[in-house]
Amino acid sequence: MLRISKLSRQGVGRGLREAKASAAARPSQLRNVSSVKSNLASAGGVVETGEHMVDGLLQFNTIHDVQQRACTQWGERELFGTYDDGKFGWMTYAEFDSKVSSARGVLTDLGIKQGDTVGVISNNRWEWAAVAAAAYSISAVMVPMYEAQLPSDWSYILNDAGCKALMCANQDIYDRASAECKASVSSVENILCFDAKVGESHAFATAMEASKGVGGGGIVAPGAEDLANLIYTSGTTGKPKGVELTHANQISNIYGTRQIVEDPLEFMRHDDRSLSFLPWAHSYGQTCELWSLMAHGAGMGICRGVPDILEDLQLVKPSLLFSVPTLYKRVYDGVHNMIQETNPIRRSLMTNALALGKEKVAAENAGGELGGWAGMKHNALDGLVLSKIRDRFGGNLRVGFVAGAACPPEIIGFMDNIGIPVCEGYGLTETSPVVAINSPEARKIGSVGRAIGGVEVLAIDPGDGQPLPAGSEGEICVVGPNIMKGYHNKPEATDEVISVLEDGRRMFHTGDLGTVGTDDFVKITGRLKEQYKLENGKYVVPTPVEESIGMSRFIMQIVLCGANRPFNVCLIVPDVEAISKELKLDGGDVTVGDLQSNPDVLKLMEAEIQSNSKNLKKFEVPQKFHFVNPFTVENQMLTPKMSVRRHVAITTYYDEIGGMYGDTVVEAKSA
Q1: Residue 118 near residue 165, CB atoms below 8 Å
Q2: At 671, is the pLDDT very low, low, confident or very high (cuts 50, 70, 90)?
Q3: Residue 567's domain is classified under what CATH number?
Q4: pLDDT tens digit string along 141-151?
Q5: If pLDDT is split at 50, 70 and 90, which confidence band does 1 have?
Q6: Residue among 359, 319, 465 at smallest CA distance from 5
Q7: 273 touches 301 (CB < 8 A)
Q8: Kind of pairing between the strands at 87-92 and 434-437
Q9: CA dist., res. 249 & res. 414, Å (int)
Q10: pLDDT over threshold 50, residue 363
């Protein structure tokens, strides 16, 4: 990535000053919290009060403050739900606070002190949150890892972070991590297991019992600029980099989001509940869900895992949902498959219901409402059809949030039409993570919203480092309190992505291509490093092409490639079940290989590619495709936040790509 020269930094500084002047000249899009309070009072609402409450909102400077003050303010409210024997049992804020106190005693007994790092290899569970809160309460640093990572990744992270203690989810992870630590990690002195039973020497539960009566040890409260997390980015190539996030970094996301929404008391309600399945080991799940919901007195049911999401939605019945696009597309595809497969009468009802839902959204966006006969029909079909689709999300979902990957406008439009608005946002681990978000009252489909409070977003010319005019495509760069401290033990890598402006502020270079409009809405168009050139000299940004073709209900995942080649080709993970039903193929034994050799399937897929490529340039459309097995976290082709590792997929299917070009040598390194 290009560094900004001293001259360029001055140019950026001028650009920022001009942007500020322009923003000052426009009517403010933000609403003062005090005006929200007065509006609530006039409507007869009740604004909560308390020692750390201002205008009904909890105030804090660190994540430690969030946990302590939330548990004091809302002790009897339900915080964490855990599945057990067909239902979710709930832990209150006060009960969680007691767990944190015991966990603090555990860490103290293990010799963890201010500035020490604590590793955790686990999916979401209350123990994860308790260890994190306990670590913060003694000014220690969390180093979260994923269960699905390779042991070699664990050992690299543990060594790089210098972890002194390690918590493992279950016995299998405990055994593998112990072997890895014994062989190659010298810093880890103690390893505990969350699933082990009380009485077992390596059980977290045993250590918790032992610390119960001791009082949990003394609190050493962190400062806002102290490190809270070392979050290692999974990356597509090379070793993971540890992103240093301070308490101030992550807290700025919560305050910044409050500033951009019309009514922060309505944006996250005290009685809201989410289904937590995005990993807290990633900054999106951790900042936006775990700590943000806690900061507003809300609760979260902890999902058992991806295979159980649909069932857990029915049990938890969330009112908020934090997700990547995959879940929403899963429902979108399911509904459209049903439309194709059902009888003509039901098909007509479903298509009419969705069409009327679209009319209702259009009327409301224009400041009116869907009245008359159309309104009556919508109300009837909403009860017959649309409410049944909403029930797939539990029946109580009032708003969804999506980030982590671009969400196709068709998906967001579909969710609007069934009565569940989805707010798309944008961010990176290095920005804690939120940069921009569409708020429920100010959305622009196809964009990732406006910058949150305190954050400035610019499109910079990758060539000369200068700010570009509104609407021009460039590298998206970010200035604000959410920018990481740096990459752990990697000062050169830090310098490559962070430049210092003439006024002393730090600017992060995201590596993403995009635009910032005159209305301040940000649009992401691709990745600088993923952009490649065809043999004819034309540049291709693969993400928009993949998004367009990937809207097919017969396609689950897709990777486009064609660097230095005469045309594009693609790897497609087909929806075997949907294709089998469409073409009435035999049973459940159909494989990806069977599809590849079936002329009818190939004809169907060719038609799908052409149908979904109508808005693409001719040279962007892939001329050939090859079916492959699903990209998963386990086969290293997906990151834990469900982004495709393009380089790994292309390297894995090196020969298949070459076969589409009719040769045995393929240029995969930059495709």
Answers
A1: yes
A2: very low
A3: 3.30.300.30
A4: 999 999 989 89
A5: very low
A6: 465
A7: yes
A8: unpaired
A9: 34
A10: yes
**For the chain, how many residues are written?**
671
CA atoms 290, 294, 297, 302: torsion sign: positive
User: Which among 570, 484, 458 has a CA at the least distance from the CA of 244?
Assistant: 484
Residue 311 CB partners (closer than 8 Å, separation 6+):
none
* pLDDT greater than 80 at residue 208: yes
Residue 624: inside a domain, yes or no? yes
Question: Which CA distances in Å does 58 have to 30, 66, 258, 508?
Answer: 19, 8, 11, 29
The residues that bridge with 512 in the sheet, in sequence order, are: 527
Please give the Cα distance from 334 to 414 (Å, whole number). Answer: 12
Is residue 536 in a domain?
Answer: yes
Assess contact for 561 and 569: CB atoms under 8 A.
Answer: yes
Distance, in Å, from the CA atom of 438 to the CA atom of 415, rounded to the nearest integer, reads 15
Domain with 596, as residue range(s), is 532-660
Q: What are φ and ψ of residue 150, in 5° steps?
A: -75, 145
- Bond from prior residue into 433 cis (ω within 30 degrees of 0): yes
Judge whether 171 lies within some domain.
no
Domain count within the chain: 1
* The token pair that represents 234 in the structure block: 């999974």
> Does 543 fall in a domain?
yes
Q: What angle do CA 455, 456, 457 make, to 5 degrees?
A: 125
Token pair, residue 282, equals 């990633």
